[in-house]
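Consider the subject:
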Amino acid sequence: MWLLAHERLLTKVYHAKWKGDSSLSCGLCGEAPKSLDHLFYHCRIAVTFWRDVCAATTLAPFHSLHEMWEASEELGGRAAPSNARDIALSIILAGAWAIWHMRNDAVFKNTWIYTENMWDFTTLLVRDWARELTGAEGVIS
């Protein structure tokens, strides 16, 4: 997440910026990205995924890295129960990780991308993190 926050993820966009490579295409949708914002928020796969996440939670939609960090900072500063805040923040972070994970599978393992798999990966991470945060089994089923 630090690499994402500092726009240092090793993507084709980053490679093109430093090496002048012009063969850019998004690892999820195949379109030409202009930034990390494309991969995580503007790509048609990412748009569908975040729409589904926001529809299933109380998270407000966000459409850029900047908005995602603002949402995570707002969650971190809210006067809500810490477990609820931590789980909501985990959803944002796990969602971004799911997009990155699925993108890597597509690029390096030549697999198909399904938003359902991103959702499954996200909920698995959140469930595991919730167990770690609370020290309890079966917190989220």
Summary: The CA atoms of residues 29 and 45 lie 7 Å apart. The mean pLDDT is 75. The chain has seven helices and no strands. The helical segments are 2-5, 12-19, 36-42, 44-56, 65-77, 82-109, 115-134.
